[in-house]
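As a point of orientation, let us examine one representative protein, giving the amino acid sequence and backbone structure tokens.
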Amino acid sequence: MGASRGSLRRMQDPNCIFCKIVAGDIPSQKVHEDGEVLAFRDIRPLAPVHVLIVPKKHVATLYDAAPADEKVLGRMLALAPAIAKAQGAIDGFRTIINTGRVGNQEVQHLHIHVIGGSEPLGPMLPRKAS
């Protein structure tokens, strides 16, 4: 059982695009939804499978996650394999959580990227010559 719609509104940031998606104010291509989590296709996919998994409660960054958020964080990670497979990533996938400026977090609402497809994704970051 998840939070009620009214309690979710109190846990959201009115200026956050992902909170607006969670609230249904901005449309998305949902692939999963339950009381605590929403997963939807990325509007600028980097691979054939590119889904974002977000907590319905606004948590700006992984730095801001509190012990009370452990359950939803675990749920997000536990959902990733089933979502990846259902979207067509049947031979592996990558999960990414970008955090803060150095992590290149574009939307200040914690989210997990689930990325995959039929071909290998390549290196996560280019290796620097030593």
The radius of gyration is 15 Å. The first helix runs from residue 5 to 10.
